[in-house]
């Protein structure tokens, strides 16, 4: 990404969010736009494809706190989106009068100690701002030439995967079919028709950038003849039309670890779009969606399960056979267990690195809807034997009904 991009491109507008938007708002806006503009939904629509690339570039910058901070700093420094950079700072600089072009490199070169320090020019200012170091001065013509012709990291790619409840808990290996930019198979990324080769751009001399004066400033910008690559393709590849990149469908096998949650975003390093000119691949981000289960729920690393028991089992106690995700276990229900009590089966929940979660079994007393005459007589007999379980509550209610101020 060039310095000019940082100055002139409005990534917030590209995503339709304000400059105060937090990470969640930015992510939500990106995901909606990416779904609407994805090449799968817009086959052959070049406008949607270009917009998709712009949205992806904006998200790459704004989703990274460090790069977002650098972007905001650059826009504040140079007038917020290019206007200040094109018009010059209010009041101008001493020595920039008479309408003569004024190169910021002159100012910073003099401040740094003369001609020797000026070599990086304006690029050195941005190199310091964006944390470059070592080798060619960041932002200088030499550094931009190296960036244009050297290796470039591939784009990050985001996709979605829907898992069953069991798969999310136990882990699963799934094939993911997706479309993303990749090296053109016809020209192997050169952009030239097979049998031909690109040649060094005569306009920029292979630097990928040209300088121009505008108002009181001198700016470097991507060379229009070679589109900033430093190379010119006379006979473009018929497949990629000279870009060296095509949208490709690929299937990769991904291991989803155990214990993932609904909505979790998993990063798989090096599984994104391939790099250009030998650069490393980007990362793949998989957003997981988990289906509900008929029996089990989840609370953190614990699984939850509700089991009905009869009234005699609650009173006398019993031993139940309850399911887990991979086997059955026995559970002892103590005598006198109240309906709604939760019993814990340790280690039979979500697998973890340190320890597994537990299975939380809630017992509920099942009340029959209909009784035979004999069963009804038995229940009445039992009720008479057990007596009233609410003596204190009954006594308190009677006292309030007969006390001062009661209504009769």
From TrEMBL:
Free-text cofactor note: Binds 2 Zn(2+) ions per monomer.
**InterPro entries, per the entry:** DnaJ, DnaJ_C, DnaJ_domain, DnaJ_domain_CS, HSP40/DnaJ_pept-bd, HSP_DnaJ_Cys-rich_dom, HSP_DnaJ_Cys-rich_dom_sf, J_dom_sf
Where Zn(2+) 1 binds, per the record, is at 184, 187, 237, 240
Q: Which UniProt keywords apply?
A: Chaperone, Cytoplasm, DNA replication, Metal-binding, Repeat, Stress response, Zinc, Zinc-finger
Q: Where is this region: Disordered?
A: 136-155, 383-408
Q: What is known of its domains?
A: The J domain is necessary and sufficient to stimulate DnaK ATPase activity. Zinc center 1 plays an important role in the autonomous, DnaK-independent chaperone activity of DnaJ. Zinc center 2 is essential for interaction with DnaK and for DnaJ activity.
Q: Which HAMAP family match?
A: DnaJ (MF_01152)
Could you tell me what this protein is called? Chaperone protein DnaJ
């Amino acid at each position: 990404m060039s310095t000019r991009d940082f100055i002139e491109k409005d990534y917030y507008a590209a995503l339709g969010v304000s400059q105060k938007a937090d990470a969640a708002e930015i992510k939500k806006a990106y995901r909606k736009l990416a779904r609407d503009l994805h090449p799968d939904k817009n086959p052959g629509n070049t406008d949607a494809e270009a917009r998709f690339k712009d949205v992806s570039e904006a998200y790459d910058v704004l989703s990274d706190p460090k790069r977002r901070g650098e972007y905001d700093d650059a826009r504040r420094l140079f007038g917020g989106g290019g206007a200040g950079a094109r018009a010059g700072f209010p009041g101008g600089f001493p020595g920039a009068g008479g309408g003569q072009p004024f190169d910021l490199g002159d100012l910073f070169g003099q401040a740094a100690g003369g001609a020797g320090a000026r070599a990086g020019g304006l690029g050195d200012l941005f190199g310091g701002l964006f944390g470059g170091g070592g080798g060619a001065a960041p932002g200088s013509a030499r550094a931009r030439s190296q960036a244009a012709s050297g290796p470039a990291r591939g784009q990050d790619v985001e996709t979605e995967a829907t898992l069953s409840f069991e798969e999310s808990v136990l882990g699963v290996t799934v094939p993911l079919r997706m479309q993303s930019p990749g090296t053109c198979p016809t020209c192997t990324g050169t952009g030239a028709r097979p049998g031909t080769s690109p040649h060094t751009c005569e306009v920029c001399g292979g630097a990928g950038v040209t300088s121009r004066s505008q108002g009181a400033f001198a700016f470097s910008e991507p060379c229009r003849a070679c589109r900033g690559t430093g190379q010119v393709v006379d006979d473009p590849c018929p497949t990629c039309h000279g870009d060296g990149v095509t949208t490709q469908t690929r299937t990769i096998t991904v291991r989803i670890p155990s214990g993932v949650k609904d909505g979790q975003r998993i990063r798989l390093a090096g599984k994104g779009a391939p790099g250009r000119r030998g650069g490393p691949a980007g990362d793949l981000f998989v957003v997981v969606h988990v289906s509900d289960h008929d029996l089990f729920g989840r609370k953190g690393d614990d699984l939850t399960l509700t089991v009905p028991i009869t009234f005699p089992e609650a009173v006398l106690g019993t031993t139940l056979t309850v399911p887990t995700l991979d086997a059955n276990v026995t559970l002892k229900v103590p005598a006198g267990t109240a309906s709604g009590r939760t019993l814990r089966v340790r280690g039979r929940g979500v697998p973890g690195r340190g320890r597994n979660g537990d299975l939380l079994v809630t017992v509920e007393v099942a009340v029959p809807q209909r009784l035979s005459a004999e069963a009804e007589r038995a229940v009445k007999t039992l009720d008479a034997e057990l007596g009233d379980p609410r003596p204190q509550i009954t006594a308190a209610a009677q006292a309030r009904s007969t006390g001062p101020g009661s209504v009769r």
